[in-house]
Hints:
Layout: H1 8-15, E1 27-28, H2 31-39, E2 48-52, H3 58-65, E3 69-73, H4 80-89, E4 94-97, E5 114-119, H5 125-133, E6 142-150, H6 151-158, H7 168-174, E7 177-185, E8 190-191, E9 198-205, H8 214-226, H9 232-235, H10 242-248, H11 262-277
Amino acid sequence: MTPDLPPLRDVIARHGLAASKALGQNFLLDGQLLDRIAAIPGDLTGACVYEVGPGPGGLTRALLRAGAKVTAVERDARCLPALAELGTAFPGQLRVIEDDALSIPLTDVLDEGGHIASNLPYNVGTALLVQWLSGEVWPPRWKSLTLMFQREVADRIVAQPGSSAYGRLSILGQWRSTARLAMPVHRSAFTPPPKVMSAVVHITPKPAPEGVSARVMEQITAAAFGQRRKMLRQSLKSLAGALNALEACGINGERRAETLSVDEFIALGRVLSSASAHQPG
């Protein structure tokens, strides 16, 4: 049976939890909205979920109500008493760690095959996403990511070729995972309301393309989008073998980075990964 909890506004007032601008905090108070976000990953009964920046515990409540076992990392000590009350209300379901999520290994906070769900603090959201999507080890430890971002960042993650939002984050989010915009969230849903709109992005891993190094993909996208107004033959010329790779893939060097599909970037990555593997060492 779900415990009867006081309204979040009362919890915030009782603990004096004004949102900290320095910590990128904006609290979500709408219980129905939070329940909808917690439902995005699917059935969480007994599932392990990692949450970053729970604040007063709005999304945490929804995840616990959905039956998840939550590990929450919060660096704002002011929020710990409110989270402790949640832990008491849901015995054995909540573990809270006071720390900076950027410095914690995922192995310390998430079981293999668990989920990550967070209303991410604006100032660390992109850095954490890059951390969770990077590295040679794939599939990753997580089964899904359900993350709140500023709408601009969310659009970059799911962007398609030819759009101004399409860039390095799009490739990172799509070359070996599936990213979709799960839910737009109006600024008025937050306390205090941020100046920008937000959106929840849902990401699930898919098999990594064979013969493609994550390190090489990072090098290609950094070079290509670092000078996105230049033609590829110019932006990629600093990468050894890149011009030959363009030719091998049948990609016109006069094109610009934002016109290449994710599959074309993967093809380039495969050729350059092979060339890199065969270089004398």
